Amino acid sequence: YQPPAGTLRLSQKSVAKPFLEVLSGRRQQVPPIWMMRQAGRYLPEYRELRAKAGSFLDLCFTPDYAAEVTLQPIRRFNFDAAIIFSDILVIPYALGRSVRFEAGEGPRLDPLNTPEQVTTLARHADFGKLEPVYEALRRVKRELAPEIALIGFCGAPWTVATYMVAGQGTPDQAPARMMAYRHPETFAEIIDVLVENSIQYLLGQLKAGADALQIFDTWAGVLPPREFERWSIEPAKRIVAGVRAKAPEAKIIGFPRGAGALLPAYVEATGVDAVSIDWAAEPSMIRERVQSRVAVQGNLDPLALIAGGAALDRAVDDVLANYAEGRLIFNLGHGIQPETPIAHVEQMLKRVRAYRG
Ligand code: CP3
């Protein structure tokens, strides 16, 4: 990687991180960029280590491996932020649920469906299990160039609960939605346990060196407005408040994927510093009612990144035209897909870094 002409690569600790500058309300001329799921299967070096590590959880919980995988996309692309390599399902794992990742099938958990299992959930919490994630953060922090930010994360309670209840991903998260309608008190207990544990987990990540935090609510978009308020907004608000009670300066990004017209309400209520937006977001609404208040992160369609060529250039230009006049962190609208050619990631990066707004 060649830094853009005129860029000084200082080694002082006090050097500014463009990613954090945007989260702190200071728009950058060249928007900082990283990609959701930037460490992963589209990288041959990831696939190689993944094959060596054994299970996916072994990869997450072996600090040397997790740190290495976190740094792989940084070495290749010099992104403005690294995201710690882990998964949102380490919280159910720390709560004593069985969690496995079957090749090609996604996550498998023991379904959580009796009130008895729910009532005893918190009792099985063992946060020592997450110590390797903190150790990986400390190692990454030592290796990262000072201008690159380190992101910690957790899944939002609603999204994590959908996997815990169903025991796997389902197309429209029907099992969790059904439990929330039929047994709202029981479901609320699951959410409460996840809120409390997510706060502790995020604080642990900050202490281990994370510069900012992201809350992934991948399945927020399947909820009707009333349910969205109760199961996506309220828990996120409590997590933000709980983290800030101990770490008032914590920078937090929310990602309620598919929130659409409910995004301004999410921003207003939760107090996040930024929201990650999906590719279906409507630009003028986002500019007027979201970007006017907080930074925006997104929102290139991951399929345009697979397509490449002129379609990719056009999609990159659209994101820049829509949002780069305000506070923007360039990202995808959701995670990068395994079949994405590396050359297309380079094409996107070159175009974003050539932008001068
Ligand atoms: O962004 C990063 O590079 C950091 C690592 C990260 C992973 N998962 C690694 C991973 C992050 C931030 C996540 C978040 C995550 N995990 C979410 C929320 C964001 C999103 O993408 O919607 C969700 C819903 C999960 C749960 C999960 N983990 C699923 C549904 C799957 C299987 C589907 C898939 O994409 O493979 C996983 C496995 C997983 N998590 C992989 C990686 C790199 C692939 C596992 C493998 O290598 O075999």
UniProtKB/TrEMBL annotation:
Subcellular location: Cytoplasm
Residues engaged in binding substrate: R37, Q38, A39, G40, R41, D87, Y163, T218, H334
Domain of life: Bacteria
Range of residues in the leader sequence: none
Main enzyme class: lyase
Pfam families: URO-D
Subunit architecture: Homodimer.
Similarity-based family: Belongs to the uroporphyrinogen decarboxylase family.
The name this protein goes by in its record: Uroporphyrinogen decarboxylase
Source organism per UniProt: Bradyrhizobium algeriense
